[in-house]
C-alpha cells in the first residue's frame, strides 16, 4: 500500500485543481467553459492517470494500465500536438494462476474495445450518424451492428436536426440531397432463399441513403429460415417511404409484422398478400387504421382474413381504387358488401374469385358500383341466375367497360341479356366455361350491349356457328376471340347472310376443332375488313378453305398466325404474299410441315414491311435462308428456324447478312447447325439475341 501513495496524492491534487478552477471561474460558469480553459492540460492529466495505472502496487489497480493497447494511448495523448509526453513501457501484470498463458492466446481472448460498449451507447452513437452512407458502412461491420441499426426508427436519427441547425453553413445542393433522401423511388425484390430477415435488414439500412425504398416484393419459399415479423419490422422502421408491399408465400409473417408496417409506413398505397397463412383480420385492420392512402389491395389464399378486415378497409381507406380477393374461405357477403358500399365513390377495379358469396353481394355490386370500370368474377358457385340478373338490372354499373366471368353457373341466357342492358358502356366481354350459355343468350346480349367492341368466348360449348353469325350481324364488334368452343361446327348456311360486319378488325379462332372450311367462308363474307387473323391449332382447315378468306379481306392483312395448321401448303403463302404483301408485318407458320422454301422465296419477293417471321418445324432448307438474305427490301427483326433440320452450317453467311437487321434469331433444335457455327454467329451478331 505504501507504493500507491503517490498515485492517490496525484488524484487528490487533480480534484483540488478542479475545485479551485470552478471557484475562480465563478459559480455561474458552466462545466463546458471550465474544461475549455483546462484543455491544454488534458494530455498531461492523461499522462498522470497513466502513471497511476503503471506505478505502485497492483493492489491499487489490479488490471495494470488503464490502456490495454498502446495504440489507444497514442490516440488519446495526441489531443494537443504541442505537448510531448514520455510513456515508459507498461509493467507486466502479475498473474496469480498455477500456470502461465501464452502471450498469443492471451491477446486472442481479449474482446475488441468497441464491443465493450453496451448497446445503449452504440444506439446513441448510431443515432448521430450524419447520413445513410455512414449507416451502411457501420452495418457492414457485424451482424450485431446491423441489428442495432435496424432497431432505430428513421425519425430517431438526429442528422436532420443537425442539418436544420447548421442551415447557414450548408449549401442548397446538400440540403436538396438531404431532403430527397427518403423520396422512396427504389425497388427491391427478394425471392426464394434470398428472402431472409438478414437481407431485409440490409435492405432497410442500405436504401435509406440512396433514395429510400418505395417498392418491396418478397417471394418466399418453404425454407425454415424465411422472412419473419422481425425482418418486416426492420423494413418498417428503416423505410417509412414504402408505398408498395407484396408478400407471397410468407407463412411466418403474421399480424405483428404487418402492424409494424402500418405503424411506420403511413404512405403505403399498394398491398399484395398471397399465401400469408398467419395474417388475420388484426393485421388488416392495422393497415386500415394507419394507411389512409391505400389505393390497391390484393388478398389471395389467406385463410385467416375475413369480413372484419374488409369492413375496416372499406370504412377507413377512402382512396381505395382496386380490390382483389381470391380463395379466402372466411370472406362472405358481409365483408364484400360492406367494402363495396363504403368504398363505392372511387373504387374502379373489382376482382372476386373463389369466394363463398351469394346473390346478395352481386346485388350490392350492381347498386353501389357506380365507379367500377373493370369487374372480374370467377368461381362463384353460390351465385345463381338471380344474382347476375339483379346485378344487371340494378343500373349501377353505368361506367363498367370490361367484364370477365369464369366458371359461374349463374350465367344463363336470361342473366346475360340483363347484364347487356344494364351495362350500357360495356366494351370488353370475356366469358369462360359458362356451360349454360347458348346462342339465344349470346345474340340477345350482342343486341343489347350497343357499345361492345371485344368479345371472347372460351369453352362455351353450347355456342354454335349460328350464334357467332348472330353476334357478327347485330353489333359493332372490333375483335372476336373463340377458344376451345367445341360446339362450333361447319354447317351450310341456307338463308343469305345479313349485312357484313365492317367493324371487325381482329379474328382469333384457336383450338376449335369443328371450325373448318364452311366456317372460314362464312367469316370471309361477313368480315371483309379483317387485319389480324389467328387460326392457330385449326388442323382441319385446308388451302381451299382459307383462300376465300384471304381473297375477301379488303383492308389488307397485317398479322397472320397459322401455327399448327398441318394441312396448309405453299399455295396459301403464295396467295397471302401476293394479296397482302404490302401490309403484312407478322407471319407465323410454326408447325406447318408442308411449307417449303418456295414460301420463303415468295416472302422475299413480295413482303415489304414484314418484321416477324416464324417458320419453325417447316420443311425449310439452306435455299430458303439464302432467298431471304437476297431480298433487298426485307428488314426482318425476328426470325425463327427452330426445328428446321434442313438448315445447316451452309446458312451461316446468309444468317450473317440477315443479322444486320435482326434483334432475335431462334436456332433451337436445328440439328444440322454445329455449336461452333452458333458461337461464330454470336460473335458476329452481337446485337442479336440468339437462341440455340
Automatic annotation (TrEMBL):
Keyword Transmembrane helix recorded: no
Keywords, ordered alphabetically: Signal
Transmembrane segments: none
Any Gene Ontology CC annotation: SCF ubiquitin ligase complex
Top-level taxon in the UniProt lineage: Eukaryota
Span of the signal peptide: 1-21
SUPFAM superfamilies, sorted: F-box domain, RNI-like
InterPro entries in the cross-refs: F-box-like_dom_sf, F-box_dom, FBXL15_LRR, Leu-rich_rpt_Cys-con_subtyp, LRR_dom_sf
Annotated F-box domain residues: 117-159
Keyword Signal in annotation: yes
GO BP term, example: SCF-dependent proteasomal ubiquitin-dependent protein catabolic process
Protein name per its UniProtKB record: EIN3-binding F-box protein 1-like isoform X2
Organism: Herrania umbratica
Record lineage: Eukaryota, Viridiplantae, Streptophyta, Embryophyta, Tracheophyta
